[in-house]
Amino acid sequence: MTSSSHTVVWFRRDLRIRDHAALIAAARRGPVVCVYYLDEARWSPTSAIARQLAGPRVGAFRTRFLIESLAALRTSLRELGADLLIRSGAPSQGLPSLLREVGASALHFHADIGVEEDRETAAVRDAARAAGVRVEEFWDRTLVPPEDLPFAVAHTPESFSSFRKKIERDRAYAAPLPAPTQLTTAAGIEPGALPTVTQLAGVDADDHPDALVPMHGGEPEAWRRLQRWCWDEDRLKSYKQTRNGMLGGDYSSRFSAWLAHGCISARSIQAEVDRYERERTKNESTYWMTFELLWRDYFQWITCKHGAALFRSSGLQGIPVPWDHDESRFARWSEGQTGFPIVDACMRELSATGFMSNRGRQIVTSFLTKNLGIDWRWGAEWFERLLIDHDVGSNYGNWNYGAGVGNDSRGFRYFNLATQADKYDRRGAHAQYWCPELRRLAPEYVHAPWSAPERALADAGVAIGRSYPAPMVDLEKSAARNRARWERAVMV
Ligand SMILES: Cc1cc2nc3c(=O)[nH]c(=O)nc-3n(C[C@H](O)[C@H](O)[C@H](O)COP(=O)(O)OP(=O)(O)OC[C@H]3O[C@@H](n4cnc5c(N)ncnc54)[C@H](O)[C@@H]3O)c2cc1C
């Protein structure tokens, strides 16, 4: 169909044209064919745990965000003179015939991390080589590329602090690459249609009326968010003070979903932080954004280093905690019916919007593993389904950490719900937002409605055990029981 000089660019979690090394290198070689494989198998539960939870592995919000990101990428590529082909099925099955169809001489793509992703990469690499096509792999998942790390990936420090200190010693974050200005492509190839959210996820994703920040996919959306949050509203300068917020859309950057889908690169964000420091303000808040991006890097490298160990119930440390697998108790956690408003509000927010604050994620992780004693992987898989920003390294790495079985975990670190509520939702505004049945309760009782006087409950129309659940555990006793169990497992 075409001359043999085409380079096929296989898009994965890199749905952008700026700072896209694989695309830029391909454009330099000549005409390109850009393709994305929507592998429906990714929506099917794979593990026994996920099958028990019932429902798709990728929920409606993340599916919508992905489809929007693909549509935006297609528009950008068309504006440059190319297109984005959408194909279904596994890339290793489909790519060989596409490579033949376009007479490709090379295949470019970015590497991805994770056990399944590694398997996919290897299958594609082998299939392309068997078809006689040169394969070039690029790296874009981290702020610091592997060749600039001051250690081999296999020697990534186990503690975040020593990882960060080693990285910061050099502190040379490469500048992002510009987008190509023009592309040429093969004519006459059927582009393929984008599926609907319902076709993939089984249900549609409607913005919940209470969602404070409806998040939509695509590279232009990522840059709009960055422009508004950093520059127009000048929020970066106070990020360190606001970042532990729970209610609202702007206490933190919300970059995570765009980063997870590769609509923007970490290097591009860092370059904007550097520019902000030069042109506006340089302070501990601007540094803190880099600090958080390094947490993200850290979990990517830990995932590369440890592979399948990240997914063991005993975690990276191999602590054989005999976790519980109680489905009805898990359902109360996942549905936001635990009887603890700070937990329930976070879990309901997640289901309704596909997002939860970092503070909330730490609180509900602690509750599931330290109070209910339930297998942390159930929680991680629930997050995997619902989070728009799901990222294998960040999700499973943080769950390992929070469950007390990760590297660099701080032992049995239990979050006291009353203290958390007092520090991060003192007047109960977040709890009342997502638990409307508590909205008329006086602020001092919102986080412990079971302790409110009869009169206060009656006036607010709250009936514990009927309009709002009774607490499902005794916090102190359950934490003590799970601590003892964890300590016994550590001794094994
Ligand atoms: C149990 C648990 C599961 C998590 N799962 C994910 C996940 O699947 N995907 C994901 O992107 N983040 C995950 N996080 C990390 C963090 O909660 C989110 O990155 C953050 O809340 C996203 O909001 P933001 O972009 O406004 O963050 P900001 O506070 O604005 O931070 C800026 C960026 O730094 C990175 N970052 C911040 N904190 C962390 C962290 N603890 N670990 C890794 N990167 C971080 C993110 O890329 C984030 O976008 C998880 C945290 C916990 C405790």
Distance between the termini: 63 Å
Succession of helices and strands: EHEHHEHEHEHHHHHHHHHHHHHHHHH
- Counted by DSSP, the helix tally is 22
Helix content: 40-55%
Rg result: 24 Å
**Structural shape:** globular
CATH superfamily of the largest domain: DNA Cyclobutane Dipyrimidine Photolyase, subunit A, domain 3
Q: What is the correct CATH architecture of the largest domain?
A: Orthogonal Bundle
CATH topology of the largest domain: DNA Cyclobutane Dipyrimidine Photolyase, subunit A, domain 3
Structural class: alpha/beta
**Lateral arrangement of strands in the main beta sheet:** 3-2-1-4-5
What is the name of the CATH class of the largest domain? Mainly Alpha
Overview of the structural elements:
The structure is a single chain. About 50% of the residues lie in helices and about 5% in strands. By secondary structure, the protein is an alpha/beta fold. It has 3 domains: about 5-140, Rossmann fold, CATH 3.40.50; about 140-175 and about 215-305, Serine Threonine Protein Phosphatase 5, Tetratricopeptide repeat; about 325-490, DNA Cyclobutane Dipyrimidine Photolyase, subunit A, domain 3 (Orthogonal Bundle), CATH 1.10.579.10. Strand 1 (about 5-10), helix 1 (about 20-30) and strand 2 form a beta-alpha-beta unit. Helix 12 (about 285-305) packs across helix 17 (about 390-405). Flavin-adenine dinucleotide binds near residues 253, 254, 299, 383 and 394.
